[in-house]
Design a protein that fits this description.
Order of helices and strands: EHEEEHHEHHHEHEHEH
Helix content: 25-40%
Structural class: alpha/beta
Shape: globular
Number of helices: 9
Radius of gyration: 33 Å
Strand content: 5-15%
Number of strands: 8
Length: 261
Amino acid sequence: MNGQHFQTAVRRPTGDALEEFMLLNGRYSNFTKETFFIRYVSKGSYEENAARLQSWTEGGGARERGFVFERAMASQPPREKVERYLALYHGGAVEFPFRFQNMMWQKALERSFAQVLELFKQARGRSEDSIVRNFAVKLLYWMDTYFPRLFVETAKMNRFPKFACGGGVKLAEYLFLYLLWLLGCDVLYLSAGEDVSVSNPELLALSLRIEDAAPPPVCRPASTERENAPSGRVVITMDSVRRPERHRTAPPQPAAAPTTA
């Protein structure tokens, strides 16, 4: 491959970030894929946006194109599968549960996996094998769970997937999302108001935070003012207003003239 390798470049939305994520594909040129990595903080319309993503993944052709929305990622592999992923980790000589047919993509996976492990060590400030192993087991579990659904084409680099998720995202989940991004997968994390639970500013700089507008305050109709008026306020109703034509005293009538015989 003459020393060439696959890489990704940050792609920034120019309008509605959620819509662009779902509908637009980044340019792939000179072995570089323009790719979204968005933290979308949805303060006032989380359920509406989640429903949009759900509908998008249920649309025609979404599954065949590798579009996935997960409301919450499982934080731990099932107990009965842990031994399998420990065996795949093999003391650091990792054997992946998923392989790309395209060798450039496969090399990108190997290189990106090692890069993510290093980022984890730096963020934790610890490099004990037991800690790194537990993190690697999570990565292998998520790869085994999501890669077959996302990377439906592994031979030609002409179909790149999209992954959106909600729920709580801590350091391990965030670095898995970054691994997806390094492999050319558009990534969007949708939150209901709280950002990812990652404090390292260098790691946060790997993605783009976007906030949607908070919903406008609800204005009460004027017709409800009388019903909701506080008890200390005097409210004058129309029934208590005396109308002059109803309440003024009638003028005296002139006496009748005497009759003549």
